[in-house]
Design a protein that fits this description.
By secondary structure, the chain is of the alpha/beta class. It folds into two domains: 183 residues, P-loop containing nucleotide triphosphate hydrolases (Rossmann fold), CATH 3.40.50; 97 residues, Helicase, Ruva Protein, domain 3 (Orthogonal Bundle), CATH 1.10.8.80. Helices cover 44% and strands 14% of the residues. The protein is built from 13 helices and eleven strands. The strands form four sheets. The chain has a five-stranded parallel sheet with strand order 2-5-8-1-9. A two-stranded antiparallel ribbon has the order 3-4. β6 and β7 form a beta hairpin. The longest helix has 18 residues. It is globular and about 70 Å long.
């Protein structure tokens, strides 16, 4: 077991308390899967993006709206439709009739939190407008580069059942999402609680963080200690997916980097200043499964992807290296 870094305990404890405050506020209006909320907070701390997948009516949009409100950051919502254009996301230059000059009309991408609702309803040309923003935190408009505000987080939703009028996300874009969270139906107890909470009027949420608070939490997460053995373990997990017989294209090095970043965030949620193997195992399915490209026989089966990651966790052991004193 790795010892905590000296002086890090108070910083981690304060970060954990702020995250728990965020959790409590979101759960005032969102009632459902705790794991979905956990993975969103992991992604927030790790500077990643989230893809929420589930059938209509399971509170995907409710969750992302509540999360954005409680963060206290600027938020914009984009309803993806087949006729949406790239300029509708990034913005464009418009001519001012009064003085004959062009000025930038910024699109909704210029916000701390971007809610991309039903992202798979827009064609690939429009979806590609998000690629540069999600990876490099910048957009290029007619040759001019613009930095996006920090923090920057894309929370996207999609319906995996209704395929009419939808466009599958390209592999390059799916790879930009740090985690994919599948939201199912709530339990009977949760659904009853939802009826009591939203039966009259949904609770009004308040902002418990600010943009600067989020940046500070992300900096705390980046300083979580990781042993070299855990780096090797993360590489072994992703390498296993590349040799699996049902996988045509395994997890990329970007996926390995995302796995470690997400595991560090999971350590912060647990109140630790150091990472342990359980952190990698806790986030492995959410980080890696959606990035796999399967062979034709099982292509499109999300459950097979999850089983492959679970197989990797079962077969790849963690071995702590020997260090001479």
């Amino acid at each position: 077991m790795t010892a905590p870094i000296a002086g890090a305990a108070p910083e981690i404890a304060a970060a954990k308390e702020r995250i728990e405050e965020l959790r409590r506020e979101v759960q005032r209006t969102y009632i459902g899967s705790v794991r979905a909320l956990d993975m969103m907070m992991v992604s927030l701390l790790a500077r990643g993006h989230v893809l929420l997948e589930g059938v209509p009516g399971v509170a995907k949009t409710t969750l992302v709206k509540a999360f954005a409100t409680a963060l206290g950051c600027s938020a914009r919502r984009i309803q993806f439709t087949p006729d949406l254009l790239p300029a509708d996301i990034t913005g464009t230059y418009v001519l001012s009739p009064r003085d004959g000059t062009f000025s930038l009309r910024a699109g909704p991408i210029f916000a701390n939190v971007v809610l991309a609702d039903e992202i798979n309803r827009a064609p690939a040309k429009t979806q590609s407008a998000l690629l540069e923003a999600m990876q490099e935190r910048q957009v290029t408009i007619e040759g001019d580069r613009f930095e996006l505000p920090l923090p920057f987080l894309v929370l996207a939703t999609q319906n995996p059942i209704d395929l009419e009028g939808t466009y599958p996300l390209p592999e390059a874009q799916i790879d930009r999402f740090l985690v994919r969270v599948v939201m199912g139906y709530p339990s009977a107890r949760e659904e009853s609680q939802m009826l009591r909470t939203h039966g009259v009027e949904a609770p009004a949420l308040r902002a418990v963080l600010s943009a600067q608070d989020v940046v500070t939490l992300q900096q705390v997460c980046s300083r979580v200690h990781v042993d070299d053995d855990l780096h090797d373990y993360a590489v072994a997990l992703t390498t296993h997916t590349r040799a699996h017989p049902k996988v045509a294209l395994g997890a990329s090095p970007r996926a390995t980097l995302g796995l470690v970043q997400a595991a560090k965030a999971n350590a912060v949620l647990a109140g630790r200043s150091y990472m342990v193997p359980e952190d990698l195992r806790a986030v492995a399915v959410a980080v890696l499964a959606h990035r796999l490209v399967l062979v034709a026989d099982v292509e499109g089966d999300a459950r097979v992807r999850e089983q492959i990651i679970e197989d990797a966790l079962a077969k790849v052991g963690y071995r702590r290296g020997f260090r001479a004193v």
